[in-house]
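Backbone-to-sequence.
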């Protein structure tokens, strides 16, 4: 007899029929003699709808109240799913994040799980209950509800699997696995049987929303047996693991991230300490800087450009304008119409030429590259937002035949 953690995303529980479908997946597993803990997201577009409601009332609402609101979406889906399982005749109980023992730090809207107090979960499992847990939420040390960031239910599920030492964690979603690119955008995208934690972490961080990046980080840390599979079709999914079997694929995937903005500071003095001045000011205000580009100086001046998340672009510019007294020539420009396209694959560590092949794809599609950044297993380029979808297809088709 084992312990299985299953997670169901918003589309998988979007209406009554889908909820019964999920109830059957869970009870089938229970019928095999396994204990099942299921983590559930809010139904369909509920979270987006709640955000829109808040915007109508107060676009500057505090993050605490936003968390109070957004966490309610999952309360609806766990209770409805539990009712469906009751109706099928099985013992079941639904639990909110705090009832399931989720303790987080106090960063509202992007909280990190500090620990799970597992007593209640083990207690319910001991009673042979199927346990349905609200994803995406926990309680901080002030006894306030926190949420884990968009897409965070994946992380709730992996965290439970790690804390309970479950046999596996299955992420059920609306596609049947991890593909070489978003299968809704790239018709030639191929399903992967396996992908390594490191590759999946890069893809998730670089915009492939199929898994929350922190769920992958956690699965790697606690070596959770992780699979992404479909809630609509009973077919094998994609295994995410430490070492994937050797295959010839150089590139595992292409991702697009549109949540970025570029800030360019032009004609700053070409003297020591400028980069420190700029980036320390941003770090103090917890602005996340990603790609950084600094040009060679001319006539005692140089340009520095970098990217930040779109939501932090205006704030970053304000901070820099307020705190740095550059001369009149210096300009700070914000461009929110950019996107980052990345290729990811552990194979590129040992195979040169990936970057040039990627740039060739951009050239053939007449797409201008504004910035480039690389690591051992990924290459990213920053381009104009309007070219983003075209770029993904071009790069994907260059590497994956
Ligand atoms: P859920 O609500 O189940 O959490 P998400 O919408 O968060 O589902 O994630 C699934 C979606 O991720 C898919 O519908 C797909 O469009 C998108 N996606 C983006 N990149 C990929 C990829 N490389 N492989 C599979 N799906 C991807
Ligand atoms: N409901 C939350 C969201 O839409 C969490 C999740 O779906 O994982 O972001
Ligand atoms: Mg998701």
């Amino acid at each position: 007899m084992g312990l299985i953690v299953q997670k169901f995303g918003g589309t998988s529980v979007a209406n009554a029929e889908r909820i019964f479908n999920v109830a059957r997946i869970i009870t089938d597993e229970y019928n095999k003699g396994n204990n099942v803990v299921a983590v559930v997201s809010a139904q369909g577009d509920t979270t987006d709808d709640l955000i829109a409601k808040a915007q109508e009332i107060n676009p500057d609402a505090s993050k605490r109240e936003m968390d109070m609101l957004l966490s309610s979406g999952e309360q609806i889906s766990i209770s409805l799913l539990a009712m469906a399982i009751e109706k099928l005749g099985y013992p079941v109980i639904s639990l909110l994040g705090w009832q399931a023992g989720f303790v987080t730090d106090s960063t509202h809207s992007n909280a990190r799980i500090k620990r799970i107090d597992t007593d209640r979960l083990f207690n319910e499992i001991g009673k042979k209950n199927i346990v349905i847990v609200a994803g995406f939420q926990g309680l901080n040390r002030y006894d306030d509800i926190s949420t884990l960031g968009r897409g965070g239910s994946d992380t709730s599920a992996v965290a439970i699997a790690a804390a309970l030492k479950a046999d596996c964690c299955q992420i059920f979603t609306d596609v049947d696995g991890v593909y070489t690119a978003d299968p809704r955008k790239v018709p030639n995208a191929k399903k992967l049987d396996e992908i390594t934690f490191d590759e999946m972490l890069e893809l998730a961080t670089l915009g492939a929303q199929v898994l929350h990046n922190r769920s992958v980080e956690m699965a790697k840390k606690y070596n959770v047996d992780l699979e992404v599979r479909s809630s609509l079709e009973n077919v094998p999914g994609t295994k995410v693991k430490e070492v994937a079997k050797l295959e010839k694929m150089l590139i595992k995937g292409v991702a697009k991230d549109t949540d970025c903005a570029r800030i360019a500071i032009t004609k700053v003095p070409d003297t020591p300490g400028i980069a420190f001045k700029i980036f320390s000011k941003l770090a103090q205000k917890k602005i996340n800087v990603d790609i950084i580009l600094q040009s060679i100086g001319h006539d005692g001046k140089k340009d520095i450009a970098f990217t930040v998340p779109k939501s932090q672009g205006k704030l970053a510019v304000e901070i820099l304008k307020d705190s740095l007294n550059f001369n009149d020539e210096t300009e700070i420009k914000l461009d929110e119409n950019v996107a980052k396209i990345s290729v990811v694959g552990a194979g590129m560590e040992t195979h040169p030429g990936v970057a040039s092949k990627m740039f060739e794809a951009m050239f053939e599609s007449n797409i201008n590259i504004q910035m480039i950044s690389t690591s051992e297993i990924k290459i990213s380029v920053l381009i104009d937002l309007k070219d983003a979808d075209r770029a993904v297809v071009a790069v994907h088709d260059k590497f994956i035949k």
